[in-house]
Structure formats: C-alpha cells, structure tokens
Amino acid sequence: MKKVTTLAVALFLAIGAMAQGEVVSKYFDRFSGNEDYVKASISSKMFSLFTELEAGSEEEQEFLEAISKLKGMKVLYGDSVANSSKMYKEGISDVQKAGFEELMTVLDAEENFHFAIKEKSGVISELIMVSGGKKGFGIMSLYGEIDLKNISRIARNMNVQGLSGLDKLDDSEN
User: Fold this and answer.
1) Which of 54, 75, 80, 171 counts the most CB atoms within 10 A of its CB?
2) Are 128 and 141 in contact (CB under 8 A)?
C-alpha cells in the first residue's frame, strides 16, 4: 500500500510540474512559426548552472539566491504586433481562466502590464506577466519557488527582452 501511495504522490507532483508554464505554452504553440515573436525558454538546468557560479559581490550573491529555487521561465514577446491591445486582453482572460490570482496591473499610455500568481500555502509556484500596448505584446511565465522580493532583481540581471515590466513590482513595494 505504501508503494501505491508513494507512486500516486509522485505522479501528482509530476503532473503539477508539467502544468506550470501551460498558459504561455499555448502562445508558444500558436506563434511557433511567426518570426515577429521572440520566444525564449529557460530550463531548470540553466538556472542550476547559474547557481554554481561564485558570487563576486553581495548583489551577485542575492541574484544567485533568487534564482536557486526557480524551475523554468518561458517568454514570448513581439514588437509592433497588430492587435496587441486585443491580445493583451485575451492573455489576461487566459491567465484568469487558469486560476491565477491578480497581483498587480499597471496601465499607461504606452504599455500595460498585468501580473498574476499561483500560490498555495504561502508559496508562489508561478508568476505570469502579460504586457500589451503600443510597444507590442508579451507573455512570460516564471515558475518554481518564487520570492517576489527578488523578481525585479532577476529581470534586471538576466536582461531578457520583454522582462522589463518586472521592474514594476519594485515600484509597488515602495
């Protein structure tokens, strides 16, 4: 009986891990052949390689600690995308349907950002950002064990196009 219970728990955890990044994967599939979009997928192996680096400063050490519990990231971003406002609304709808809780929305004349999380027992397992406006459309998923205090630090240090909106999380803390 213990073996069956252990197998059931392992299967449940594996299915939960596969579900992470599902919303963004839909957009990856939808725009797979479209060269107007930049698509990036960072695996847990890449994050683990980062954590093997030796930190030279306190800021580098904080960055390595911030990414040590991440399992992956997927980003899709397109500049000058037709109907980007419509796609922004569709992205938010998909995020809400997937059971994410809104964290923050930033609206301005150039670009809008919507942040949402999946959280259970105080642990954030996934953060999604949807952006849209005059500058284009983007959707990003960061998954693993996430500490929101370090998210904008990760975005700045990774310098990935489309992640600039994560700096908005720092603004909300002040």
Assistant:
1) 75
2) yes
For residue 158, give the nearest of 79, 73, 80 by alpha carbon. 73
Q: Which domains does the chain carry? A: 21-173 (3.40.1000)
pTM of the model: 0.73
Per-residue pLDDT reduced to its tens digit, 50-64: 777 777 777 777 777
What confidence tens digit (pLDDT) does each residue in 97-140 have? Answer: 999 999 899 888 888 999 999 998 888 899 999 999 887 899 99
What CA–CA distance (Å, rounded) separates 5 from 32? 39
CA distance 119 to 146: 10
Strand partners, 84: none
